[in-house]
Input
Amino acid sequence: MTASPPTTSGAAEAPRTALIVCGDLMTGGPLVQAVRSAGMTPTRALSVAKADAGDAAAIILDLSLPGAAAWLADLPEHAPPTLSFGPHVLADLLKTARAAERGPVLTRSQLADGLPAWLATL
Output
């Protein structure tokens, strides 16, 4: 008796999305490009008040936004993998984000290399 090949439903797999929470348009553009290069679909929120992780597969969070550190700390345990970033001069903010243990925390200067590498692990 031969095994029959697995059947598929024929439905296309929904694209994975990455929520980018960043109000800075100069930074946001390269983030969108990095997400697309990783084969994901970017969605954007310009503030944490408008951010909804919904069915996102990943979150990229600009810690310099008002309330971002608190939003990060309040994410539920089952939240998508999260990468946070901020200016190196806000060391206390970066330290607070690292203490939340929600994923990697990078300085803005580390984003160019760190974001694509992180996205590749998802």
About this structure: Residues 1-10 have pLDDT under 50 and may be disordered. The two ends are 39 Å apart (CA to CA). The CA atoms of residues 29 and 70 lie 24 Å apart.
